Amino acid sequence: MTVNPQASALQPVPPALPAPSLQEAVQAWEAFGFFRPLLEDETVRLARRLCQAFYGLSSPERDDASPLSLYWNLFERLVGYGELSRTPVIGDAWQNYFLDSLLSVETAFSRKAQYGDEGLGAAMREGVAQELANLQTLFRLSADWWQDQAQRACGGSAPAWKDVRPLAEETGSLPQKARWAMKTALAGCPDWREAAPALAHYHSEFGSGVFSDYLAFRWEGQLTGLTRPDPIRLEELVGYGRQRAEVIENTERLLAGFRANNVLLYGDRGTGKSSTVKALIHRFGDRGLRLVEVPKSRLADFPLIVNELKERPQKFILFIDDLSFEEGEDAYKEMKAVLEGGIAARPDNVAIYATSNRRHLIREVVADRQPTFNDEGELRPGDTYEEKMSLADRFGITVTFLAPGQEAYLEIVETLARQQGVEMEAEELRRLALRWEMRHNGRSGRTARQFIDSLAQEKR
Length: 460
Description:
- There is one protein chain.
- This protein folds into three domains: about 20-215, no CATH class; about 235-400, P-loop containing nucleotide triphosphate hydrolases (Rossmann fold); about 405-460.
- Helices cover about 45% and strands about 10% of the residues.
- The protein is built from 17 helices and seven strands.
- It has helices at about 20-30, 40-55, 65-85, 95-105, 110-115, 120-140, 145-155, 175-185, 195-205, 240-255, 275-285, 300-310, 330-340, 380-390, 405-420, 425-440, 445-460; strands spanning about 215-220, 225, 265, 290-295, 315-320, 350-355, 395-400.
- Strands 2-1-4-5-6-3-7 form a seven-stranded mixed β-sheet.
- Strand 1 and strand 2 form a beta hairpin.
- Residues about 5-15 and about 375-380 have low confidence and may be disordered.
- It comes from Heliomicrobium gestii (Heliobacterium gestii).
- It holds the Pfam family DUF815.
- This is DUF815 domain-containing protein.
């Protein structure tokens, strides 16, 4: 069984296998091993309760809700999930949700498989194969089966969740394409025991848990996956080729398993510093690169972040955008600890990339340069000044993005115009571009893109 992550979303799903009996379904719900964390999902747990209610069994979670009430609850969850999806729905609403949950759940199997599908022990391989056969029984509970059971138990009508229409039929990012291909392969597999090697390979290629679902994350006390990260590609960025080459080279070192440098991208606003970092996941996501955006206010969480990432085979860039500190802020000390390594040392699979409009990251004031004392009575304030200014030196690599000169700015404009198919006489384009930058934010790559976007809209 092979899985092609680039498979077309238009490929049909093979016909579903016949649904099991109610007794077989109830038995399958009790046969969870490695995949037991699936039962922590509220919707999956609700489906289990409903099956037990159909069969007349009591449940530790059972309350006074009738089977019909449970059915309506499950109906709302499944149909809502399918209708709001931005990727193709495989099978019916239950089957699509079940497949997504199966691929997202973190298990001992997925965590071991992410290090290489050839490294699984015989006991794990055999156990997973048998468990997948039971999971296939639950997948085979079609929409018609659920509706029929509800109508039998309640003696009335129940809505069907067979046909749902997602918001979009796009496979999107590389993880989403790989997931769609794996879901399609499972849906069409006559015996899921044979799918165990393909599932292990899926996790070895794309990771386990949330790391198989997303390329980019935001740290908010915990990792939150970004469904639609900035789509900018390195190929779309114009100018600053030497600077980007330095960032790319350091990133390739990280991916090769070497200890990469932390990088400070410093320079004028609108020159593409942040876009350079964000674009890296689209170039290297298929090689295991993941991006984690960390707000400055969360720098103290570095030990927690490291603990979350250090045992993963993926490589991570901790991205701190627009890093700077005002006078009186002492959060720069947290940043120094992060860069120099405290109790929670930076692991080899993590590098810190920060952008800033300030070369030394901290706003300078005249008092910082006083040689002996300042108005606050601090002795040797110059030492404090040196401590602050040394923060930027903790980055192994500093890459400078300066505002382009006029000719460089116009070259960026002309390149973007070609990319977007804007046709105009060269002299007219240059004249309008110079007028635009004078009236707006000055010369920068961002200004050039805003000008071309506006021009392209006018030409439509």
